[in-house]
Amino acid sequence: METATHMLRTGQRGTLFQLQMALRDLRTSFQRIGLAWSLATHDVGSRYRGSILGPFWITLSMGLMVLGIGFVYANLFHIALQTFLPYVALGIVFFGVMTGAINEGCDTFVQAAGMLSQTSLPMFTFVWRTMFRTLINLGHHLVIVVAVLAYYGYWRMAHPLLALVGIGLMLANASWASMLAGIASARFRDIPQIVVSVMQFAIFMTPVFWPADKFGAHRAVLDFNPFYHLLQAVRAPLLGQAVAPLSYIVLVTMAVVGWTFTFAIFARTRRRIVHYL
Amino acid sequence: MTPAPVSITCTDLTLRFPVYGVDAKSLKKAIARVTVGGALGRHAGITDVTALQGVNLQLKAGDRLGLIGHNGSGKTTLLRALSGAYEPDEGAIEVHGRIAALLDLSLGIDATATGYENIRLRGRIAGLSSKDIDGKMDEIAAFTGLGPFLAMPVKTYSAGMQARLAFAAATAVEADVLLMDEWIAVGDAEFQKLAHKRLLKLVERAGILVLATHEAPLLKLYCNKVMRLDGGVASEVLDIRRLDELLAR
């Protein structure tokens, strides 16, 4: 058993051993979860150091975007603002969780190169650091979500508990995607560019800015878009709508398959990641 | 459970590095390799370098080992392996005791953050809790001798001031096993004296010291044992009095 005062590293190989070591990494990262939080708060703090509003620039810039897109698209689609603004606000904010986690995930290990090459800190610590940073950003965005929902009176029909389940599923999926992007980006320098392009493509292909029912006859296509399900599980309950059971099936399956795959990749590459950097 | 006494054991430690060249980091080339079916050579762009080969090492409390060898002989790699960052390809490393690796003074230094914030960050990375750091802050701050500058961003510091800050923060940890790459000469003459005193104290407190350096006077000052690395192959561990003999080889 590894403790703070005992370290054993061997050249032992084999799938079982690699899995054990990967699990140990995960366990240690939870024991030192405070470190990931400290790093994340430091990251956010230093990004906005010296600015007047500090991290609330996150809130302000998001607020502007939501208002702008809300007004323009509500007119284009001839939808009442009170229906469309909350829809867009939730869409942009929660799609932002996915983009944030996955795009910044590309930097997870590259950014930590210095620390990884001279300490035995668990790799997962840096995955949680990225996820915590995403959560801190979400926290600032929630101000807008709450304001819009309250202003238009949606709090009366919203199902916050169901939305929490949705957020949980979203995070479960965002975290494996984030970690996978981190490992792949450490190994191949093309990955971050690919990831950014895919996420940009996804935000336009997913009903974030536009209402899903405008898709008309092609609506079934949406069922093949994982981001649609991710968004629905959070957005629909907050707008007082029902979530299709299919969405939950897709999200749970995706989380299980995704984590299994990512963890297997991690177990295989764990001892090499430090050399990729 | 009583903690096991402080010790370092390396058994037949072999460490190979895949060095990923520019070609190996390109996804296009990797795909080409797969589709062309190895015509380009299965390991195109990835060169395996054997950094350490069959290193055997046994240290116990009170040992202060100096590592000597040419550039690229594997000194830093051995230190990184002992810190737990690099895993062996063959053999094993076992360390009992809290490890502090002072390999890179700039670890966890954020130039846009203030001196205080950097001390805090460095402490958290070293495994201290926020409360531990609060308790040590005054002592660390006093040691840096930077006074009011600690509240300013590190990017405004001179190189010497940065070195002071980094040194103070890095040496605030309590450790049983201290791993150091040569960087002892930091700051001005006055600070070097202070740094020397602090290091000696740290070495006394630490059970084991492993120090990689090219300078014989430093070795004689801090170490009681010495080992030479040549192309990743280690000599036997000798008493420091036989340093000249080892250097002459």
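qc> The beta strands of chain A are 6-10.
qc> done
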